Each structure stands twice: as C-alpha cells, then as structure tokens.
Amino acid sequence: MTVLGPCEVSWFAALCDDDYEQLGDPNADLLSSWDHCSRIVETAERLGFDNILLPSGYALGIDSVAFAAGIAGRTSTIRLLVAVRCGEMWVPQLARQMATLDRMLDGRLTVNIISSEMPGENLDGEPRYRRTAETMRVLRSLLNGESVRHEGEFVNLEIDPPRVRTVSGASPLLYFGGLSEPAREVAAREADVYLMWPDTKERIADLIADMTARAARHGRILRFGYRAHVVVRETEDEARRAADHIVAALDDEVGAAIRARSLDSESVGVRRQAELRVSSSDDGYVEPHLWTGIGRGRSGCGAAIVGDHAQVLEKLNDYRRMGIDAFILSGYPHRDECERFGTLVLPHLDHAQLSA
C-alpha cells in the first residue's frame, strides 16, 4: 500500500475576472475587485487552505502584486502564490518587490512565474521562454542574496542583491508550467514546482516521467503541482447537476470570446485542453469524474473534478500516488465552492505548506 505524504492544497482568488454563477453570464458582484477577491482569500484562510493563487492578466481584473501587498496584513497563516509575468518589470526591481512582499507576509510568499507575452507585445514562443529562463535564474540569485553578473539576450546586468531580503534569506518557491518543448526545458532547469493542467491519468504519468528525467539531467529534483477546478456536492448526482448548471447559459460564441481574451490563448497547453474536450464523451467526461465542459467558457485550465466528497478525495489521492504533492483548485462561484471543498474534502486530506 502506498503511503501518501502531506500535500499542499491551494485555492484560487479570481483577480482575473473569472468568477461566475454561470459561465458566460457576468455578475457584477463577482467581478474582480478588492472586496470580492479579499473575501475569497479570507474564506480560504479560515477553512485551512495552505496557499492561494493570485492570477495575473493585464486586461483581466486587478493587479496581483498590488493586491498581495494589500491583503498581506489581513492574513496570518495562508501563503500567497503571486503570479508575475516575465518582462513586465526589470528583474532587480522585481526581486526587491518580491523580497518586500515576503517580509510583509512574514515568509509566506510563493511565486507563480508566467511566460506570457506582455500587453501590446508580439514575441514568438522560443524567445519568450528564453526571456523567462533568464528572468527566473537572475531573480532566484538576487533573492538568494547573491551578486549577479549576467550577460544574456534579454537581461544584461552586473549588480548586488537588494538590501531587503526575504525572511528565510533565500528565494521563495518558484512555480511554473507549460507543455511546449521550450517550456519543459525552462521548468526542468529553473522551477521548484512544475504545474500541470488537467489531463488523463496516462498523459499525466507520462508528463511526470518526462519532467523528472529532464530535471535529473540538470541535477535537479522537481515537485509537481496540479491545477484543476472542482465541483463537489453531497452526492454524485448533485455534483453532476451543478456542473451542468455552470455551463447551462453558455453560448458557444460567447465561450469562444471568453477563451480568446487570454494572452496565452494559443499556447500548447490551451490547445491540449481543447483536445480533451473533443475526445470526451457526450456528457463531457474524458475519464471518471474529470469533466471538460468547464473549458467551453474559459481559457487555460479547462476541466473539473466532479463528484461527491469521497469521489473527489479519491481522485486527488490518485494524483498524489502518481507523485503530485501540490494542488491549486477552484470552482464557481469561487467563494461558495471554496466553502464546499473546504468543508467536505479538505479535512480528509493530509496537507501542509511546501517548504523550500
């Protein structure tokens, strides 16, 4: 019998205008705002989640770093997984900003590195990932308190680290995801936690094996994270009806427009989420309890774990047995589903914050 170690369980604060009762039917009360997103974070902390993702999108909602600074003093236990987009800020200033945030959080900062085009930019994938690799390498060195001399394609500098240091004196964990060949190589060389979007168990196992081997070639060990939606109810029938309700008002043209809003809407990972929907059964399930219908109305992570509390728990434990020890979960509306998952499933998971 496989003995499962503790995992990290994170929720999602919908800073990126991605909160609905029903996809495609905007609700002004659920739009990204300081008040709404603060309530999501406070709910997740009260329920005992380990971490919470603060997503970033220029055209979509409020800023992740500014929000993190504002919410820092209103939290005491939950970590913040702050998404930052490579290239939006000069790396030494980004390092100082992240170190300051970590101080404000008393060491509870983690960082989600996004390799997206910047607003108004048109940059092919390969150079974009080269920029990401340089950013991650220099950022980590500065946050580790090291002086840097780097002559690269995108980052050229010789500089001492900022005076302000993280609480630990070392870089926070860097989370990063991507399916393309250059994305995998960046993760293997530079990331601490490699994030995956939903897929079949066979594909997830293959990806873990590939990324484990790539990291080993660089003398490194990766942790693995899984980003998914959840729809959990007292019974499976209730959960499936709730899933159907989420997309019941969604027009296909509206769904396509929502998916196209993201800066990474043409990425390899997004295309794979679309392939999952095509390969699913008529009711949207690509394997037991993994429902792809939710991807009809959003870009990025496009599938949900659907079931009663025991079924959702077992699905997560299946992933843990495969080697995943970090989950970033979400559901619609985010605060309501946070309450359901936090009450029905979270108490049955052996979870704790990941350490560096």
Automatic annotation (TrEMBL):
Luciferase-like domain location: 32-325
InterPro entries recorded: Luciferase-like_dom, Luciferase-like_sf, SsuD_RutA_monooxygenase
Q: Which GO terms describe its biological process?
A: alkanesulfonate catabolic process
Give the stretches traversing the membrane. none
- Entry GO MF terms: alkanesulfonate monooxygenase activity
**SUPFAM superfamilies, alphabetically?**
Bacterial luciferase-like
Q: Which UniProt keywords apply?
A: Flavoprotein, FMN, Monooxygenase, Oxidoreductase
PANTHER family per record: ALKANESULFONATE MONOOXYGENASE (PTHR42847), ALKANESULFONATE MONOOXYGENASE-RELATED (PTHR42847:SF4)
Q: What is this protein called?
A: Unannotated protein
Q: Which species is this UniProt entry from?
A: freshwater metagenome
